[in-house]
Amino acid sequence: MVGLVLVSHIAKLAEGALELGLLMAPEVPAEAAGGTADGGPGTDYEKIAGAVERVSAKADGGVLVIADMGSSRMTAEMVLEDREGCQPEAVIADCPFVEGCVAAAVSAAAGEGLADVRRAAETALGRDCE
Amino acid sequence: MTDSAKLIEVLGNVKDAIDANAEYLTDLDAAIGDSDHGINLARGFRKVAEDLPAMAGKDIGAILKKTGMDLVSTVGGSSGPLYGTAFMKAGASAAGKSEINTEDFLNMFSAAIGGVKMRGKSEEGEKTMLDAMGPALRAAEEAAAAGKSAKEMLEAAAEAAAEGAAFTKTIIATKGRAAYLGERSLGHVDPGAASFAVIMKTVAESY
Prior knowledge:
The complex is a heterodimer. By secondary structure, chain A is α/β, with parallel strands linked by helices. Chain A has helices spanning 11-23, 45-58, 70-82, 97-109, 114-122, and strands at 3-8, 30-34, 63-67, 90-93. Chain A has a four-stranded parallel beta sheet, with helices on both faces. In chain A, helix 1 (11-23) crosses helix 4 (97-109) and helix 4 packs antiparallel against helix 5. Chain B is mostly helical. Chain B has eight helices and two strands; from the N terminus they run E-H-H-H-H-E-H-H-H-H. In chain B, strands 1-2 form a two-stranded antiparallel ribbon. The N and C termini of chain B lie close together (9 Å). The chains are: A alpha/beta, B mainly alpha. Chains A and B meet through helix 3 of A and helix 4 of B.
């Protein structure tokens, strides 16, 4: 199964988005990596890297990383570049934070592969009111 | 032009300069960002300075790479991955060298800017640190081509960085948190361009 890592400047935002996403898909391996090391607003490389490693150990289908903006995204990209070649693969999605998380969680729980889970996240916006 | 020992001294001076300007940089960021640029960068360079004694005897590439990694792991804001990538790319360009000449410096500076553009998916003119970095590199290249001394080259770069930072006051942000402000970002100096001008000035004064 594909796993998820949620990266935000705000710890509660990452945890909250994940809580919402996992309501429909509690079996998906996932972690929130929000805020700095001391819990303040910002991004922490080690926190993200640790979350990706722990989730990847449980997610044989790979890891989808969802980041909110600015340093969250840039730092997540650096973490992924630094583990390039490691298995299972981890990739970043370019998606709305909350809707992307929900769509990715549902897709992952359905057993879809990493590319499909990413696509689900990236096409998530507005799906519930079409 | 310079060696590892001098680089360690310069990085220590950069830490002091960022500390001294932390409040100024944070105030700039309060106007068009999230009020943390000076605080974040000061935290990052304090970690860099802590690790400098252990860098004695290492080559320039290794020192700059460690500097970049320290910034990535401690800054916590966008300047972490941006300056972190800049220092790491400069370090990769100087890998294995314990001394560098002017040409090496220009190549390292160019690699650093390339790293910032790649990491931030940005170009000059978007009200970012690139608006101070790009003019500084071009001024350094011109000074070097005109046969100026290394000191004069760094001074020209520092002056161009300051002018570039001042220029950001006249343009609208289209990258970074300030982009959400649109036209309301006019009249404010970009904090990242300002911090780069501080760094470049410190490098020139330290030489």
